[in-house]
Amino acid sequence: MSWKFLIAEPLTLSDIIYFVEYYMGDCPGKDFLSDLPHGIIERILTKLPIRDAVRTSVLSSQWRYLWATMTQLVFDENCVFVRHGSTFSEKKLFNCIMQCLFLHNGPIKKFSLSTSYWDKYPEMDQCLLFLSRKGIKELVLDIDLLNPLLPAPSAIFFCQQLISLTLCGFELKPPRTFQGFPCLKYLNLEFDAVTTEVVESLISGCPLLEKLKFLNVDHLAFTVRGPNLKHLILEGDFKYINLEHAPLLVAISVEINTEVSGSNILLKVPVTYHCLKFIELKGVNFKGMNEVLYVLHLILQSPNLQELQVSAATRWTFFKAYNMDFWERECPTDFTFKHLKIVKMSGVSHKKDMDFIKFVLRSSPVLEVMRVSYDEYLDYRKRTVMEYDVLHSKRASPTVNIKLFG
Asked: Which stretches within 48-187 are classed as H helix?
């Protein structure tokens, strides 16, 4: 048995006690815990819930108050010990946070708080200001969506050394003096109330930003300005999204909802994405002309694409439909996916979806896997016809493996 299992996930205090009892059975009196390298002890502590990490002070004299040097502090409502028959107290959670911060000795690289009682902690702004002076690198604040959107603490914007920031369920209003996060590389905004001006300013104020995840509930229209942006995940009811100023994108995942956007969700831009290798498009209605035009434009402008994932969505459309020979007419006659190896198509239920599958098969000479899954409500007879159609379609790759799922 090796101590290496102690740095695996998940880990509890009982795992450590088991480790001690196991070894003490062979060598009574030897303090294996104190003999562990300090770096290993720190990694063990970060794998434990914060409540158990504090309790490790009783395990060994050398472990006493080691938790106070932990560089990662993760809090949620499970951090508070609730006696049998008692109810959770938000005051206990806040007191736990305050005590851990004020007794902490050293830098704090990560702070995470997930709670449905954010409105009960008016002093959290002071805590975040304290963290900003500790050189915080990663910050995660997640509040219950059932609560009304609450203003994001202004002290967040003083954390100028942040590399990663996750905010969920807040109303974002940066102070007028805010110039951005100069070190930020990862930004995750989930269901936050934010205006177009704020989100554009926030993104452009992060010159090193490499990954952006934005789950939006408002009907925003915005331009992504990220000269170093490589990974982009967008979900929600966007009016349109302009990606012209993000030339280094490597992977994108975009949800399309033309019922809201009026079919202008993604603007056609004169940019070639030479670095783009992975594309995921969710909810594409292949019966709508504008959506299909965007899909075509994007893949034509991604010459090094290696993996394509598309989920089809059958919606009633008020927009113009395209003709049967659309793909042949709109594509250059010599066009091929020179590097495309993996294609996953889900939600297939209509002949227009099949037209796209056939187009990919006959235009992908190095394709290795074509995975097709059909809409669960599709009639069995219709699905059988479609399966036959796929298996007998013309294909450019002689070794492609076609996988069909009901």
From this structure: 50-55, 90-103, 124-132
Q: If pLDDT is split at 50, 70 and 90, which confidence band does 281 have?
A: very high
Distance CA 159, CA 304 (A): 38
The letter for the amino acid at 346 is S
Q: Which is it for the CA torsion 313, 352, 349, 402, positive or negative? A: negative
DSSP state of 160: T
Encode burial over 262-272: b for 16+ CB neighbours within 10 A, e otherwise. Answer: ebebbeeeeee
Element (H, E) at 389: helix 380-391
- Cα gap 9→17, rounded to integer Å: 16
DSSP H helical segments within 37-154, as ranges? 38-47, 50-55, 90-103, 124-132
For residue 393, the Cα-to-chain-centroid distance in whole angstroms is: 36
Specify whether the CB–CB gap between 46 and 67 falls below 8 A: no
SS (H, E, C) 197-250: HHHHHHHHCCCCCCEEEEEECCCCEEEEECCCCCEEEEEECCCEEEEEECCCCC
Helix, strand or coil for residue 155?
Answer: helix
Confidence band of 17 (pLDDT split at 50, 70, 90): low
| pLDDT tens per residue, range 355-390 | 999 999 999 999 999 999 999 888 889 999 999 999
